[in-house]
Design goal:
WDR86-like, 2 domains, 21 strands, four-stranded antiparallel β-sheet, globular, Anaphase-promoting complex subunit 4 WD40 domain-containing protein, WD40/YVTN_repeat-like_dom_sf, WD40_rpt
């Protein structure tokens, strides 16, 4: 549905049309009582929630794309490392401060398009078509620096993470050779590999050590992470 975001009140069934996006809307995130929507023209639209009013959505701000990146779409942005908003253009992650919606930094260590971000504990992990996974950490001055780079043989499309039954963190990453790799952190020791007929584009974490994968053919995979064999 181009050029609009639709919202419904689940108690009253009232419908609201939020104008402002140009083209299709590819991603939406809710944080700090605000709705963020990434649109086809590369901008992020922001609406602030106003309770107990006839229209509870107040158009507040637009996080505009850089003029040099007019061909990039807003299909990947996240609210992570509160209070930051991350969004990629070309080979860069642009970062806004969540409370002020002001740009604060640019992360440009990747050499090809970044594809996914994962905020986990005190670290931020990013992946890219440049065949790398980067681990970022916050410095004392409030900036972010790449602390470690893990290299893959293929481009990396999506990231997910959960703890195994022994409490050990396991990173799940989908590559564009139709495989999904599982790595134990922080060593990046491989714990397993999933083979798919199509590229896995989405990884979601569920309850009870379950995780879900969605591929380019529309297939949904349901997997359970087991303890490491003794």
């Amino acid at each position: 549905m181009p050029n609009v975001v639709k919202a419904w009140n689940i108690e009253s069934s009232a419908e609201f049309s939020l104008d402002g996006p140009v083209g299709e809307v590819y991603s939406m995130v809710v944080a700090n009582e605000m709705l963020f929507a990434g649109a086809q023209d590369g901008n992020i639209l922001v609406w602030k929630g106003i309770p107990n009013t006839q229209n509870p959505f107040l158009t507040g701000y637009t996080l505009e794309r850089p003029h040099s990146s007019c061909d990039m779409l807003s299909f990947c942005f996240v609210i992570a490392f509160t209070p930051f908003i991350f969004k990629f253009y070309s080979c860069k992650w642009l970062v806004w401060e969540l409370d002020t919606l002001e740009p604060v930094m640019t992360l440009n260590d990747h050499t090809d398009a970044p594809m996914s971000l994962l905020c986990w504990d005190q670290f931020l992990l990013s992946c890219s078509l440049d065949h790398t996974i980067k681990v970022w950490f916050a410095t004392g001055g409030g900036n972010l620096e790449a602390a470690y780079t893990h290299k893959e043989d293929n481009g990396v499309l999506a990231l997910g993470g959960l703890n195994d039954p022994d409490g050990k963190p396991v990173l799940i990453c989908a590559c564009n050779d139709n495989t999904v790799h599982l790595y134990e952190l922080p060593s990046f020791m491989e714990r397993g590999r999933i083979f798919s007929k199509h590229e896995v584009r989405v990884i979601e974490i569920g309850p009870d050590k379950l995780f879900f994968t969605g591929d380019g053919a529309g297939m949904l995979g349901v997997w359970k992470l087991l303890a490491k064999p003794s």
